[in-house]
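Reading a protein record of the kind used here takes only a little practice. The record below shows the convention in full:
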Amino acid sequence: MAVEPTARHWWPDDEGDYEVASTELKHRFAAWVADNGVGLQEDAGEGLLHYKWGYIDGHLTRWRRGDLSELYLELYPAKVMVEPDELDEVIDEARAFIGFLAETGLLDPDSDPPEVLLEHLGRIEGTFRAHMTDQSRFSFGKRMWTKAVSEGVDLGDERAVDAFIARFNARPRAEREAVLGPTLSSRQPTGGRVTAPATPPRSSAKRRKRRR
């Protein structure tokens, strides 16, 4: 007989436990999405769980307004590549995930009420859109890979990525700083040159093939 996971299961202690918990949670979410006819990608939930685990508090089913603000106003603008016409899908996914947790009884009791979380998503949606197009908020990696994509580089092609990095490093410093910004460039010990293939930021929606 299957044993229902305890609250502790959704607050993993290490990477291995996270993989188990997140896989199960995504499976349940996918089933809920299918049952409710919600139009989301088949791997919906991957991004928000990844950042909740790795960058916020690690608790996969406890959600508060501050978590949503940190995720969608800070982490996504810094790290996630999304086309402007697909930004709605990001917030739709968040709304669906909150609804899923609430309806299935998985939303941790220490969370904000689901209606409060959904209202907050609506309140920050406009700011989220603005932040996602504000390049001053982009991380070093996102700046690099946004430039690579703009030049037609397939981030899933290791040879193409290596060739892009070589071309980038050969450019004059002023051109590199135009991409990285003088502040970011000055922090690099090689004067704004990339010395190793930094991993691309996670992508969302239709570009999930470009993994972090």
Notes: The chain has two domains: 12-136, 140-200.
